[in-house]
Amino acid sequence: MSSTPDNQCLLQTPYFRVVREQGYFIIKEAQAVNGVVAIPTLADGRLMLADLRRRAIGGQSIEFPRGAIDAGESPCDAAARELLEETGWQASQVRQLGLLHSNTSLIASAVAVCQVEIAEQQAGATDGEVDKVLWVSRQELLAMIAAGRITDGHTLSAAMMLLAHEAS
């Protein structure tokens, strides 16, 4: 196997680049904050989770809605858009809780975490990605995590960030 010089681009796609820097392989995306996790919250405190098929794991996943941030879009706007596209529910208020890094040894970009308040309403049309929506209390969320029903790293991190903000 031939050696690769440092600071070289090894792969470039429309979505990301893989570079070698100082002996490490790093995935770099176009934006420093490239994605968003939306934590949909009703006035009574219940949280919305999405049950959807994730092809990378070959099965269903229960997670908070999430997606990419479009160029020029704020994380809060992206959270509201992703929620609407995936679930048909409109955001009434959005606040950014912070950032998470999915894999600090491999991925350079961060993901924003936003709490999205939604009003009781009838859901509209969706993009078909989500199979069903679940409404859970914080206690039920913790029980699902403890039972291993939620394994998505973004959802686990976002749940912890939400609970930490509420405790402070």
TrEMBL record:
Which reactions is this enzyme annotated as catalysing?
GDP-alpha-D-mannose + H2O = alpha-D-mannose 1-phosphate + GMP + 2 H(+)
Please list the cofactors this protein needs: Mg(2+)
Is Cell wall biogenesis/degradation included in the keywords of this UniProt record? Answer: no
Q: Which domain of life is it from?
A: Bacteria
> Mind telling me what this protein is named?
GDP-mannose pyrophosphatase
* Nudix hydrolase domain location: 28-158
Lineage of the organism: Bacteria, Pseudomonadati, Pseudomonadota, Gammaproteobacteria, Pseudomonadales
Q: Which organism is it from?
A: Pseudomonas piscis
Write out the GO MF terms.
Answer: hydrolase activity
